[in-house]
């Protein structure tokens, strides 16, 4: 018989991301962040490739990245409202962790499985931050998909890309619950 952990199950069934714009200081310091990163790195990893790494963005880096977003948006001739939205997560944030997908050569592990593993790390970091009592949110946005931003802002190599940016801070207001998927409409049972 299984040995249930009702507290963990309840947490996972009721977890709720906190909007990044509602996060404020204090933010976790390095000593508080290391256990969160350690837990996130225990994500499923077929082939033990560790196809991810972390970049911790502290406040001065966030301000610099907001300027990189501004410059990249102008270079791409994006509408001003899109640029403002893209830079807002860096203008408003006090701490974020970039989960970088690092594609590694493997004859056995397809690239897509490495992408899934990096995504699992994002979700694990989001959940562990929430479980530790912090507010947290997983964001992306157009800068996360712009190769120029990845290179100019984060010095990512060609075989790397942003899987997600996890903002972590102190929750200033509880978000309302939102509609969740209807499990019956998205579940198929096969008996044979």
TrEMBL record:
Q: What UniProt keywords are attached to this protein's entry?
A: Flavoprotein, FMN, NAD, NADP, Oxidoreductase
Q: So what EC number does this one have?
A: 1.-.-.-
Quote the PANTHER family the UniProt record gives: NAD(P)H NITROREDUCTASE YDJA-RELATED
The cross-references to InterPro entries, in alphabetical order and at most eight, read: NAD(P)H_nitroreductase, Nitroreductase, Nitroreductase-like, YdjA-like
What positions does the entry give for FMN binding? 15-17, 42, 46, 138-140
Would you identify the family this protein belongs to, as annotated?
Belongs to the nitroreductase family.
Q: Which GO terms describe its molecular function?
A: oxidoreductase activity
Protein name (record): Putative NAD(P)H nitroreductase
Cofactor(s) the protein requires to work:
FMN
| Residues covered by the Nitroreductase domain | 26-169
Question: What does the note under cofactor report?
Answer: Binds 1 FMN per subunit.
């Amino acid at each position: 018989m299984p040995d249930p952990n009702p507290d963990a199950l309840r947490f996972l069934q009721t977890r709720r991301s906190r909007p990044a714009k509602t996060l404020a200081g204090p933010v976790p310091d390095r000593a508080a962040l290391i256990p969160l990163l350690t837990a996130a790195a225990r994500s499923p990893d077929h082939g033990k490739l560790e196809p991810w790494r972390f970049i911790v963005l502290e406040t001065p880096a966030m301000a610099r990245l907001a300027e990189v977003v501004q410059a990249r948006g102008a270079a791409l001739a994006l509408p001003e409202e899109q640029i403002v939205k893209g830079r807002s997560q860096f203008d408003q944030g006090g701490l974020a962790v970039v989960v970088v997908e690092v594609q590694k050569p493997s004859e056995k592990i397809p690239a897509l499985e490495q992408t899934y593993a990096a995504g699992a790390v994002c979700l694990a970091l989001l959940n562990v931050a929430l479980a530790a009592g912090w507010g947290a949110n997983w964001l992306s946005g157009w800068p996360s998909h712009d190769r120029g931003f990845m290179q100019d802002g984060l010095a990512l190599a060609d075989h790397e890309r942003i899987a997600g940016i996890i903002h972590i801070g102190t929750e200033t207001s509880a978000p309302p619950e939102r509609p969740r998927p209807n499990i019956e409409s998205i579940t198929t049972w096969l008996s044979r």
